[in-house]
Amino acid sequence: MRSVVQCVATRSNHRASHDRVIFAREVAVSMTTSETRPRTRSIELLLVGLLAGLALVDMALLASPSGVPAEPVRLLLAVGAFGAVAVGVALGVVGPRRYAVGAVASVPLVALYAYTGLLLPWTQFSYWLGQRGLELVLGIPFVGEPLAAALFGGFTLGETTLRTAFRYHYAVVGLGVLAALSVCVSLFRRRSAPAERSPAEDAG
Known about the structure:
Number of helices: 8
CATH topology: Cytochrome Bc1 Complex, Chain C
Number of strands: 0
CATH architecture: Up-down Bundle
Strand content: under 5%
CATH class: Mainly Alpha
CATH superfamily: Cytochrome Bc1 Complex, Chain C
Order of helices and strands: HHHHHHHH
Number of domains: 1
Distance between the termini: 41 Å
Radius of gyration: 27 Å
């Protein structure tokens, strides 16, 4: 008889202990999500601002190419583009994982944006960078020549290279503007949606 009572008491202690662990987990999750929401929003706004700033500066360079020395500005734009990828990954760590996936998936586009942007001033550095890129692409077996024709407009650097770089560069700028707009729309929809209530609030 005593062993049955001890067994029932042990089970009730385990159940109470299990319930306390579940409650502690729920409290920890609710505290974590409430603490990370402001951080997530501020990082989202930083990402939108960075993308919008990159697009605006790039469009200003397009409108007034001789107004500012283009090479240092293009270098800053390239660094800023990779900075946007880093902010997207940070946002994916703190908030929804889709930001990190999107940031990692955008690395080829960011590299294309940075590379073509550095080719556009057509200085000695741009020519050197274009020559290295062309040699690198031509060194790829089987697909090197068609890829060089698609990316550089041929097998030598010239006017067609600049036209091709211009097209690719501003196509990526357009995609960046669309990405910034989509983040803005998701922020607006999330803020305008009614706040979700937890089951504890509904019960109490």
